[in-house]
Design a protein that fits this description.
The protein is an alpha/beta fold. Helix content is 51%, strand content 14%. Helix 1 (24-34) crosses helix 9 (165-185), helix 3 (54-61) packs across helix 4 and helix 4 packs parallel to helix 5 (96-105).
């Protein structure tokens, strides 16, 4: 289990993980605004670098290529940037190297949503999510549960079932500020390896 780097807690990036369509981008933008930080959406960054959409990258270059680019970008952001709020694509955190980089250098928030709540959003997102293409509802549920297991390794969890994006963002900001205060009031003598495995 890797230890956190020596970067001061207040300067660590905040990483949002969770299944596709849970609101990582919307909530992440709000958190970044409230904390006066830059927001980085990894999928949007990859699209910008390649001048093409994620579905087009999947179709033309394959998922393996996309995962490689995704992994390299996230590891670089985690290791070499600070004071950012970073939203990860739904599948990124399944990669061990990505998880290790996030947990070693950043504070990881899992935006959790129940299957029943999430499937209500499916019609809005299914057409632009390559990994959902041609899958039955049962197959999507298996993917949802499989990924949820990987997401269970995090620093803090926010259940978003009954939360609007503003409220979810406020919860994250309050949690972050509380952690900062506890850390500093203990003269930095506090373990930061507070990841959960639920």
């Amino acid at each position: 289990m890797k230890e956190y780097s020596e970067l001061p807690l207040r300067e660590k990036n905040i990483v949002l993980i969770g299944f596709m369509g849970v609101g990582k981008t919307t909530i992440g933008q709000l958190v970044a605004k409230k904390l006066y930080r830059d927001f980085i959406d990894v999928d949007q960054e990859i699209e910008h670098q390649h001048h093409m959409s994620i579905p087009a990258i999947f179709e033309q270059m394959g998922e393996d290529y996309f995962r490689k680019v995704e992994r390299e970008l996230i590891v670089d952001l985690c290791a070499n940037k600070r004071l950012k709020v970073i939203s990860l694509g739904g599948g990124a955190y399944l990669q061990e190297e990505v998880r290790n980089a996030c947990l070693s250098h950043c504070i990881v928030f899992f935006l959790d949503l129940s299957w029943d709540c999430w499937k209500e959003r499916l019609p809005l997102i299914v057409n632009n999510r390559p990994v959902l293409k041609n899958k039955t509802l049962e197959e999507i549920e298996r993917l949802f549960l499989q990924r949820r297991e990987a997401y269970s390794i995090h620093n803090s969890r926010v259940l978003t079932n009954d939360l609007d994006p503003e409220t979810a963002a406020n919860q994250i900001v309050e949690s972050i500020k509380w952690t900062w205060e506890v850390y500093e009031s203990n003269d930095n003598d506090v373990s930061l390896d507070y990841r959960h495995n639920e």
